[in-house]
Amino acid sequence: MADYEIRPFRAGDEDSLLRTHHLVFPGGDPGLPPMSRERWEWEFQANPAGQRIWVAVHGGEVVAQYAGLPAKVWIDGRESTFTQIVDSMVHPDHRRGLKHPGLFVQVGEPFLETVGGPAKDLVCWGLPVEPAWRIGKAFLKYELVRTQDVLAREVEAGPVDLPPGVEELDRFDHQARWLWDRCCAEWGASTIRDERYLNWRFFARPDKSYRVLGVRDGEGVLRGYAVYHFGFWLQPGSAVLVDWLVPPAELEVGILLYHAVLACARASGARVAATLIPDWSPWFDRFQQGGFAVWPSDLLLVARNYARKYDMLWLRDRWWYQLGDTDLV
Amino acid sequence: MADDAFAELTFRPYAPGDETAILASFNRVFAAVDPNFRPRGLAHWRWQYLENPSGSPIYLALAPGGEVVGHMGGVCQRMATEFGPTLFMQGVDHFSDPSRLHGLRRGSLLAAVGERQAELVGGDGPDRVALMWGPPVPAAWRVGKSFLSYELIRTQLKLWAAPDAVRASAAGGVEVSEAASFPDEVAELFARAAAPHGAIAVRDRAQLDWRYRKRPGRRYAIVLARRAGRLAGYAVYARAPFDGEAEESLLVDWLVPPEEDSAAHALRAWLAARAKAEGAERVVAVFPDTTREWMDFQAAGFRAAPTRHFIIAKIEVKRFRARWLFRRWYYTLGDTDLV
Q1: B170 interfacial to chain A (CB closer than 8 Å)
Q2: pTM for this structure?
Q3: Residue B240 CA from chain centroid, whole number
Q4: Is the dihedral of CA B209, B211, B217, B221 positive or negative?
Q5: pLDDT digit string (tens) for A102-147?
Q6: 3-state DSSP assignment of residue A265
Q7: What does the alpha-carbon distance between residue B214 and residue B220 come to, in Å, rounded to a whole number?
Q8: What is the interface pTM, i.e. ipTM, of the complex?
């Protein structure tokens, strides 16, 4: 490894990092356009929880990256950070096989050792492709949290207008945190969904648009929201429920938002609506009662934890996450 | 843990006559950790370990006085796979006796037993165990992944429905009846039903009779569906504890070829009627979510819910990769020792 400088990202790496990114992820797959500079800056420079990037540099060029998107998390009564590993890459000219994993592991190891810890990022996690999962399991202490099922249903004919009582939000405000506070008591761990995080995640992203649907009470207080996106997830032209925050006890709010999402799906011309909800949540069952079915997928939710208590079984049974927590949609 | 930590112990496979010492340790160890534990008798032990037509190997660690201080049982299954016949083995009754360990780490002793067992029975070929698997308790999983290369295949969901919610469309000339035993025709049924699966445990008369007719202490209802006299599918039903519930109405086993939709409808209708007659709030089934049955049962009114269980494997033959098993392996509750 003498030819490689392995270190945290620093200013000036951007251009060669993006050149390698375009080579590794050329954007041939639907829903995955090449990374633009604007999106990269949103994802890795503007994230309110910070930046996590390590690179391998060879001849002045970034030829490998191990990166993550941190998020502030409330876990077991305290604030911590979970980091989603994304866009791990090695330039094709610098790759080796599984038995000699090379740069992927050489960059990943110091990243995970530096970033993770009981008082640092408590969990590093992701939804890796199968080869990355195999290497991560063998060399980087990845473990499987869940073989991830998805909820999906056909979109049948019906109203295309939002139901009365549902409004479209153009920003989140401080009430988002109130709403999240009311929900999180039921969860062991969840990304803190406050104004700053949600506006960055759903209103600042430059390459994707989301419709944010909300229900308020008579005093104007936000009682629930759903984030909708029409695009590629699992298949082209999907109506995707990206984020859902409704207290389980407030079924009437959930029903309004559920029908609002279906109305958006019809308005988009989508044939299929899909989402991802942890199977222990009451909403997992309620969405099935509403007509969604549980389908298998190739998604693997994997993690590496840095506190023994929060092992994979603990995370399986207590961690609230949504598609909005991922970089998939 | 150095090997000399085990110098006083004898590691070997089961030999006739060990059952008394095995049961003494088994009943002592599990009574200490499970308040609902009911001691196992010799009849059950003989059924599980001596009478399985596919074999049930045991590996032991014995103290100098002959006490069993480490135990790994296995219940073998003859498998039909797309790579040819082989054996899978469900790991059962894994324990070490903490009162006899004298400073040894429990996990490392179990690992030592497991490694030796794998060396003895694991490998490629029709008479070797290609895969050891099971739905372990968390403690066994932690030992296995640390010491024995256990891999997680699936976080297991279940399907459930209130009896009145089961939608059973026209059964299309299929007759369903409860039977005292499995007919020989089940071999032909298995050949038809096995075709879509990459791996499925052989369900022949010998295996099924052992599993569902001869097991001491539990009664299973065997339900056959016939279309124009020809066996078109079967279901096995029982009331038993499962997933933390003291008693559930359970679909224990299910074998219906893909072309026999009418038989599937008729068998589901029987299940719902039986569960309702018994006053059950729901009927519960377990399938891999990658199977046709998973979607068919949802279409018939079942909903998915989490279980505490997960399926793990120790893979002895590389072509049975974890993701291949996830996609291609058919199993039901009856493949496990949970019910």
Answers
A1: no
A2: 0.94
A3: 14
A4: negative
A5: 899 999 999 999 999 999 999 999 999 998 999 999 999 999 999 9
A6: helix
A7: 10
A8: 0.93
